[in-house]
Amino acid sequence: MDRLQGPAGLLPVSGPAVTVTLDDAPPGAINKRIPGLPEPQPDFLVVHQQDVQAVVNALWAGGAQAIQVMDQRLISLSAVRCVGNTLILRGRVYSPPYKITAVGDPDRLRAALEASEPLRIYREYVRAYGLGYQVDERSSATIPGYQGSLDLKYARVPE
Description:
- With 159 residues, the protein is an alpha+beta fold.
- It has helices at 2-5, 49-61, 106-115, 117-129, and strands at 13-23, 66-69, 72-73, 81-83, 86-89, 92-94, 98-103, 132-143.
- Helix 2 crosses helix 3.
- The radius of gyration is 17 Å and the shape is globular.
């Protein structure tokens, strides 16, 4: 059991890290009219579940050793869900800005973020409508071990 704690995400992980911050567009962005682009709709101006998930997926693809969204360590049982313009993780509700931190090689993590097609599209909305997108490197960060329940409530053995 002790050997599986690390791979299961139950132990803290420290090292160089990248933090990605996503935020809704500022007030007044709905009034922006940019030639060649559609008139901004309210839906264009907020961070969506797929945007947070795109960052998480890119960071995993970039070799992240551990990922934390806001103050929650992600493991294989974690789900990133939004309701309206709020994020729900393990029953806790978070509002933007959303901070996603990954421990790993910063060059590989940045390259994975740049290579992500969903994030390329998101960055177009950043330029067009002012959504927030910031990537910061940290020389050292510690992501704590997962502290939630590991019990599966709805799993069943297939017949």
